[in-house]
Write a structure and sequence with these properties.
The chain contains seven helices and nine strands. With about 230 residues, the chain is an alpha/beta fold. It is globular and about 50 Å long. Bound molecules: S-adenosyl-L-homocysteine.
Length: about 230
């Protein structure tokens, strides 16, 4: 998908790679897989941000996408994708479609991507962006990510892009043996930790703390006290 912003994307990839080197001692990944970097070079991030943010689209920063939500920083998108070790045949679940950008990155790596978004308006907008760009194979659903997507499980990789206070049980269940889950865990208003979970052959879970992060909260749709996001719907 070469376009007039290809050079900006290349610079963004350089910045992401530099940050990977700088954080490698914590993350364990000082060099990201070339396939992950290639995905960042291909996906037009400017198509996923509001008009007012188009000029900022290739900064290595999180940006507002409306409804108090954000599109994650490119480095974080790359890191989560890297940690999920997505292979071509993998079945991949994303929780928190948001703009659809992370889903597009995943679709560059696998033909079997599922993504769930709680807020109907964001979900619909992401669906139309992804369709316009030709990412037709991504399965999208409006719903509660705490439930996962049981009909499509088990998943080889699960990427959660909103922060739950603890790891949702349904998502652990829907992880395949050998499957990886990357999830920012922490109570709202506190520091969160990006965790990498791997399901072992005996069903147990091995967990590693990767790096401190700041994500929007993963909302429980039935919790009225929790968020302004639900009230807006
Ligand atoms: N991955 C997105 C960024 C996500 S921001 C991107 O690439 O743009 C986090 C998203 O998670 C928001 O859109 C928010 O509405 C959504 N979210 C919050 N709680 C959720 C839940 N319980 N189930 C599904 N999505 C949820």
């Amino acid at each position: 998908m070469a376009d007039e912003r290809q050079a900006e994307r290349e610079r963004m990839v350089d910045e992401v790679s530099a940050q990977a080197r700088d954080t490698g001692v914590y993350t364990g990944r000082s060099r990201f897989d070339e396939r992950v970097l290639e995905a960042l070079r291909r996906v037009p991030r400017h198509a996923f941000v509001p008009t007012a943010q188009k000029s900022n689209a290739y900064l290595n920063r999180a940006l507002p996408i409306g409804h108090d939500q954000t599109i994650s920083q490119p480095f974080i998108v790359a890191l989560m994708t890297e940690l999920a070790s997505v292979e071509a045949g993998d079945r991949v679940l994303e929780v928190g479609t948001g703009s659809g950008y992370q889903a597009a990155i995943l679709a560059e790596l696998s033909d079997s991507v599922y993504s769930i978004e709680l807020l109907p308006e964001l979900g619909r907008r992401a669906a139309s962006t992804l369709t316009e760009l030709g990412y037709d194979a991504i399965e999208l659903r409006i719903g509660d990510g705490y439930q996962g997507w049981p009909q499509a499980a088990p998943f080889d990789a699960i990427i959660v892009t909103a922060a739950p206070p603890e790891i949702p049980e349904a998502l652990i269940e829907q992880l395949a043996v050998g499957g990886r889950m990357v999830v920012p865990v922490g109570e709202q208003g506190t520091a969160q930790t990006l965790q990498l979970l791997v399901k072992q052959a005996d069903g147990s879970i091995e967990t590693r703390d990767v790096i401190p992060v700041g994500f929007v909260p993963m909302v429980r749709p039935d919790d009225q006290s929790d968020t302004s996001a639900n009230e807006r719907e």
